[in-house]
Amino acid sequence: MMKLTLDADALAAIVVAEQRGRVPFEQMTPQEARDVYRSGCALTGPPPRDMSAVEDGEWAGPGGVLRYRLYRPSLTPNLPALLYLHGGGWVVGDLDSHDGVCRRLAADSGCAVLALDYRLAPEHPFPAAFDDALAAWVAFSTQAASLGLDATRLGLAGDSAGAALAASVAMACRDALADTDTAAAELVQPRCQLLFYPATDLTAALPSYAEHALPNTRVFLKAATMHWFRGHYAPDPATWTDWRGSPLHADNLTDLPPTLLLTVGHDPLRDEGLAYAEALTQAGNWVSHLHLPNQIHGLLTQSRLMPASEMVWALA
Question: What are phi and psi of 154, to 5 degrees?
């Protein structure tokens, strides 16, 4: 693929980080990376939008308590709602790192947004994050009415690793609903999925990984960073083609929710995102795909620095 020009605002952000001596995640411990990521998102993420209500709550999950945060842009009864799964390579990220993103998404879409604090690796490796995300969707969809939400208008959303989780949960819902012999018939099929620069292929075999492994690569998310994430979340290569972590490798991509999918050019995940958009389309699904060739991974959590993020929010 031809060399793509980097957006001027993205380059400026990278230069500032380089001047400040930014250390890549792969040179940190997981806890150090979590602390740096959380503080960085607070500085560069979308300015917090006022909400009519923000409520923290808990559900029982596969590994203990599942914490969530519900953002209501208005107190109108029966709002449609999205379950949001944060990015961070399954290793970093939490309710606070994506607070600005969830507020902005709720404000611009008019939907309530429920953000999930799923378990992180390496303390909780694959498939813990998927198990938590699926359990949260079950609770979210079956208890929506009790939360004052419209149980008939629920969707999934996420960025990066969170987008991978959203895509896999959508498949699990489809399969469960197709199996009339299970008790999962109560499960609600997502009405849509919003996948922002998704991780869909843990094999890391597509060309955009090689491009972002070069010594002169000047982006925040490099191939080495993704290998570090994968090493913590899915250390066993035998799991890399499991659809719960690699949606692109699923045997069946039919009958999935209408999808809004964002990819960016300067991203080791670029080619797997492009491939997933194409695979969904070829399987007969409705897909709206926005590709920003000059942008970098993490565009939404760096919205204060990236005016180009406005075109993404406009689609919400």
Answer: -120, 140
In this predicted structure, what is the pLDDT of residue 186? 63
| Catalytic-labelled residue, pool 159, 267, 303, 309 | 267
Q: What is the pLDDT of residue 2?
A: 42
Q: Which value, to the nearest 10 degrees, does the dihedral of the CA atoms of residues 201, 97, 215, 224 take?
A: -40
Rounded to two decimals, what is the model's pTM?
0.96
- Report d(CA 109, CA 259) in Å as an integer: 15
- The tally of CA atoms less than 13 A away on the side-chain side of residue 283 is 19
Give the number of other CB atoms < 10 A from CB of residue 39.
12
How large is the greatest C-alpha to C-alpha distance in the chain, in angstroms?
A: 59
Catalytic residue among 109, 168, 297, 309: 297
Q: Sort 227 into a burial class: Cβ within 10 Å, 0-12 / 13-18 / 19+.
A: middle
Please indicate whether residue 297 is annotated as part of the active site: yes
Structure tokens at 305: 């620095």
In the sheet that holds 149-159, the strands lie side by side as: 53-61, 64-72, 112-117, 79-85, 149-159, 193-196, 259-266, 287-296
Contact 263, 7 (CB under 8 A): no
Residues of the chain with pLDDT under 50: 1-2, 183
Residue 64's identity, in one-letter code, is: G
Q: How high is the pLDDT of residue 184? A: 53
Is 309 one of the catalytic residues?
no
**The two three-digit tokens of residue 206, written as one number:** 């597509």
Angle between helix 128-142 and 161-178 (nearest 10): 60
Show Cβ contacts of residue 228 under 8 Å, excluding neighbours closer than 6 positions: 25, 26, 89, 91
Q: Which residues contact 124 (CB under 8 A, 6 or more apart)?
A: 63
No. of helices (H) and no. of strands (E), the chain:
9, 8
Q: Distance (Å, rounded) from C-alpha 137 to C-alpha 69?
A: 14
Catalytic residue among 160, 208, 246, 309: 160
